[in-house]
Amino acid sequence: MIGRLKNSTALASLRRALPAGRFLRRFKDADGGVLAAPFIFMLLTMLAINGLGMDLVRHERDRAWLQNTLDRAVLAAADLDQPQTPAEVVLDYLSKAGLEEYYQEPIVETLPVGAVRPTSKKVTADVDMGFNNLWLNFTGSEEELPLTAHSVAIESIGKVEISMVLDVSGSMGSNNRLPNLKTAAKQFVETMEQNTEDGNLSISIVPYSTQVAMPQDFLDEYDVEIGNGLPGSYASAAADAKARSDARGWDYTNCVNFEASDFNTTALPSNQKYQRTMPFSVWGTTDYRTNDSRYVRDPVCTIHSDAPGRTALLFEDNVSTMQTYIDSFYAGENTSLDLGMKWGVALLDPSIQPKVAAVSENHADVIDPRFRDRPVPYNDTETLKVVVLMTDGQNTSQYYLKDDYRVGESDVWFDDDADVYSSYDEDNNRYYWHNVDIWADHPHGQQNSSTFICTTYYYSGGCYSGYYYNEVKSNDLENLTFEDLLAETSLPYMYSRLADEWMTWNAATNKWWYNAFGWYGRSTKDTRTRAICDAAKDEGIVVFTIGFEAPSGGQAVLEDCASSDAHYYDVEGLEIQDAFANIASTIRQLRLTE
């Protein structure tokens, strides 16, 4: 029938679909959204990631702070002078930094083991703990981030070569300076020995005044002669002088007249010829020829047999030996910082090592065989080379004999049996007998003779009374060489006592004073001092200088010489002890090893 709807499956499905359409329309028109759950999940994830980052930042902050604090703590704990225990020091540092919760007992090692005064101290501190997380705990994780720190510090002196260059000039005898120096220097060597392992320390002590005297056995390893450096016309006389020295097996002096170029280098080349300083004195009218116990007083270069304490002490580590040696110092003569520094630096230069080895093998009393390998090369990074230069003054005159007065025979004879000098008058070919006060045709003691000596005269000039002087042939008559003459008779004695007896004053002073010697003045020596100091610093030698109540001129040179402003000490009185103590402390090598 037309117009009648039939019941069918298609129509039923359509009816069931109508509510769903309305749902879709409602969903389309709704404002509440459906992303709340995903958004919350994403937010929590972002917070967790950011929280993890914040925990990591906090962790790194605390780790760095802890590491830095621990580094400082072990450095302080490793100090050999630290009165507190390492545990107390480390805990104190961590507590003051608010990190005491991380404290753990440090490990301490000292060398020698159990020593009251260890020479090396090693402190190891570790932290291995968990870090308190904040944000990660919200994730439900109970895992802790590890918080670790490790620090090791060692304080030890290691290997050290030291040259102590000490002023013993005449001015050191004033204002209690020399006793104060002795006390300070003795404390210094004791401190260095106590804080250094056996075999790691060598100290050379170089006392200086006008010159510096070295052990003869050491100088014998070099070509050092009084005739070196002279023109060729002196060759024969120089050879004779060397032969005489070799024959007797010793030299009067063991000082060197260095050339200007020698101060531009720390080395002491073994293939170079050096001029030995002549034995002579410009101070006092003294004559010690009849005194068998000593030579001339106050010589430019001190003669070892007269004053062993003026001969440098080489490569030593025995405290008793060094302190006894320092106690033997006495004050006298001029000031030569340049010569003291030259020798002090040379004793640190590896160029002398073969000579040191030779001396230690043949003369163990001069250099102990334990030091045969010193000085070590400059590139030995385990060894510190140090010079301590001290003065109470400034450079003054350094004297040397001129060429004509160095080698050959003088015009003075000496009869040792009768203790009579004879002076030769070349112009009149005759000899003046001193003490006897007569002229003769030969030196006193050359033969047996009898000479009438008039003591009282008539007004007319004839002899009224007198006596016969009997000359006895001497078994010990010598035409003195310049070296032998001046080793026992000062230049002032020569012109004022011997020459003036038969020469005019002008002739006597010209011959035995103005023409006899020359000198280097302060300006030249200041230049040389600065040159050798620069050479030392260029080689990496650490230079400490001490101005002990020194004048401005000396202070200026010392300041230029020192490795830095901090290496220069300007002290008075007992402050010199503090200066040496500070230097001993500074020498220690404090280093963070890990």
TrEMBL record:
Coiled coil: none annotated. The chain crosses the membrane at residues 32-53. Residues 161-212 form the VWFA domain. Keywords: Membrane, Transmembrane, Transmembrane helix. InterPro entries: Tad_N (IPR028087), VWF_A (IPR002035), vWFA_dom_sf (IPR036465). PROSITE patterns: VWFA (PS50234). This is Flp pilus assembly protein TadG. It comes from Tritonibacter multivorans. The lineage of its organism: Bacteria, Pseudomonadati, Pseudomonadota, Alphaproteobacteria, Rhodobacterales.
